[in-house]
Amino acid sequence: MRKLLILGVFILAVVVPVRAQEYPKAEVFGGYQYVRLNPGGTNCQGFGGAAAGNVNNWLGVAGDFGYCKVTGLPSGVSAHTVNYLFGPRVTYRSYGSLTPFAHVLFGGQHFGGTGGGTANSFAMALGGGADYKWTEHLAFRFIQVEYLYTHFAGTRQNNARIESGIVYRWGGR
Q: What value does the CA radius of gyration of the chain take, rounded to a whole number of Å?
């Protein structure tokens, strides 16, 4: 009985500080997005956004959206992509100002080009990034780097996506 009581006190001593840690209930990101489209090796530049709800100090659910215009195409030709991805995010919240995170996102990607040709595809992103806390509510996302998989017209695409921008956080616990 005595050992059980000691174990219970130990568990409470460990769990209570973990539950007391501050973390935002929600986060919104907006910023620059760069996508390297492969095969073909073309660049796509635009903007990205994300919204995340945090379940606890380390686990959240994210929705990530982006738009970019393909650059380096011949004159008179234009193309763009829109991606929409959702999934779990794991965050390491230390006591410092740097907050690294990792996520795996699933969704779709839309490709549109000159002449009204469009296509939709399954998309998956695997990656992460790091935010630097400026104030209680504002942070700067140094970098978010991801492997972005798509599959258009029977062709696998192994793309790279990079984002950077501002994060607004609220609802701290």
A: 20
User: What's 7-52 look like in SS3?
Assistant: HHHHHHHHHHHHHHCCCCCEEEEEEEEEEEECCCCEEEEEEEEEEE
- Residue 124 pLDDT: 98
Please compute, for residue 8, the number of CA atoms within 13 A of its CA located in the half-sphere on the CB side: 5
Domain count, the chain: 1
Prediction pTM value: 0.83
Domain with 136 in it: what CATH number?
2.40.160.20
pLDDT tens-digit series, residues 44-103: 999 999 999 999 999 999 999 999 999 888 888 899 999 999 999 999 998 789 999 999
How many residues comprise the chain?
173
Closest CA to 113 of 159, 80, 150: 80
Q: Are 73 and 79 in contact (CB under 8 A)?
A: yes
Closest CA to 146 of 83, 59, 57, 71: 83
Q: What range defines the domain where residue 60 resides?
A: 2-170
Above 60 in pLDDT, residue 16? no
